[in-house]
Amino acid sequence: MRNGTLRDHIYGSGDDPLPWKQRLEICIVLFGVLCARKPIDRQRLNENECHLAYWARQSILDGTLCSIIDPYLMGQIATECFFIFVDIAYSCTCREGNSRPETGEVELMLERALELQEKADSCRCVPLFLNTNLE
Q1: What is the domain extent for residue 62?
Q2: Residue at 133 is within a domain
Q3: What are phi and psi of 48, to 5 degrees?
Q4: Which of 8, 20, 127, 135 could form a disulfide with 4 if both were Cys (CB 3.0 to 4.6 A apart)?
């Protein structure tokens, strides 16, 4: 990545944060790009928050995912794109490997999410996800 690594641009190292569309295009670690957090952060005091995948999945179930999303992204993500992305990330982090989607399916769904985001960006006719309550 030009001007540093993905880590440099999403984990608060002082570099300019990546906009949502750019994160969606390069999608490396799904919950990592959404929340701008390391997959494992042993410095967190709450043990449930140390493992991002577990924390994000639990936040989805509790309806509090918005509380851990990178604040920089609020108001940038098209609603439909957001829900597709979260669904993919949730599916990819199932404990049972045979319950996870295949790579090709993930790729197709990410492409669909990107299409929806591009449509929203081009016409601003699609509502952006701002809600802090997922229910």
Answers
A1: 6-123
A2: no
A3: -65, -20
A4: 8
Mean pLDDT of 98-124: 85
Q: Using alpha carbons, select from 44, 20, 42 the residue that is nearest to residue 33.
A: 20
pLDDT over threshold 50, residue 85:
yes
pLDDT at 84: 92
- pTM value is 0.70
Buried b or exposed e, range 1-31, using 16+ CB within 10 angstroms: eeeeebbebbbeeeeebbebbebbeebebbb
Tens-digit pLDDT profile for residues 8-45 = 656 556 666 767 676 665 557 788 878 878 777 777 66
Task: Return the C-alpha torsion angle 52, 27, 20, 30, nearest 10.
Answer: -20
Half-sphere exposure (Cβ direction) of 9: Cα atoms closer than 13 Å: 19
130 within some domain: no
